[in-house]
Amino acid sequence: MDNPLFPEMNPAKPTTDGWITAHCDGGSRGNPGPAGYGAVIEDSQARIVARLSEYLGKQTNNFAEYSALLAVLDWAVKIGARRLRVVSDSELMVKQMKGQYKVKNPGLIPLWEEAKRRAAKLDRFEMSHTLRGGNQEADRLANEAMDRGMGKKQGTGIREQGTASSAPQYGSASLQKEAHPPKPTRQVFEGLVKNGVIHLIDGELPDGTLVKIIRE
Questions:
Q1: Average pLDDT over residues 186-211
Q2: How far apart are CA 45 and CA 113, in angstroms?
Q3: Whole-angstrom distance, CA of residue 115 vs CA of residue 34
Q4: Cα(189)–Cα(211) distance, integer angstroms
Q5: What is the pLDDT of residues 124-165, one digit of tens each?
Q6: Tell me: the pLDDT tens digits for 70-86?
Q7: Given the DSSP bridges, would you call strands 124-129 and 191-194 parallel, antiparallel or unpaired?
């Protein structure tokens, strides 16, 4: 239903004959912890046609990243888009979707398989990696989704735009609110050092995470 008081809630009808570009992001506070995703979608004329955002309950960062990708793919398929370009700051997910990394985490395999199935419905599908600074609005929407799920007070204004898809039905992605985020649990990640930089073999850590390095 049209709302003339808030025209920004009625985005332009997307053109489906050119490339649709989606910036998507997912995050988790605690990994696992309260998680959410956000996405900003533009048509071939660089007009924003949708903003997607959803709280996912207690999940990992990677689960949230894949949830964002699945939501974008679902949206594109439903509107009849033929060419989709996805920009994400998750290097792991981008390389897994390109076949450069194997998906080793059992919890991510069904999400990766579903993303491949949905992408196959398009004529063209591309993914590229960007640093977090190039994904700011999607990151903001993901954080707002987490705030909503955790019961934090939101400011006024338009938060979501377009048609948001439901969270993927894998694992325990419930939409329940959590009054307090759980305490971080100790986790073990494998990685290697190259040029003085630690590269994780599988998994991601949010900025600000305190780590202890044990050499083997």
A1: 61
A2: 31
A3: 22
A4: 10
A5: 999 999 998 889 999 999 999 999 999 987 643 333 444 343
A6: 999 999 999 999 999 99
A7: unpaired
What whole-number percentage of the chain has pLDDT above 90? 61
- Tell me the pTM: 0.67
According to the model, what pLDDT value does residue 156 have?
A: 34
Spatial distance between the Cα atoms of 53 and 99, rounded to a whole number of angstroms: 27
DSSP letters for the chain:
---TT-GGGSPPPPP-SSEEEEEEEEEESSSSEEEEEEEEEE-TTS-EEEEEEEEEEEE-HHHHHHHHHHHHHHHHHHHT-SEEEEEES-HHHHHHHTTSS----TTTHHHHHHHHHHHTTSSEEEEEE--GGGGHHHHHHHHHHHHHHTTPPP-SS---BS-PPPPP-STT------SSPPPP------EEEETTEEEESS----TT--------
Do residues 160 and 51 touch, judged by C-beta distance below 8 A?
yes
Domains of the chain: 7-149 (3.30.420.10)
* pLDDT for 74: 98
Angstrom distances, CA of residue 24 to CA of 39, 85, 89, 90: 4, 11, 8, 9
Beta bridge partners of 67: none
First to last CA, the chain: 61
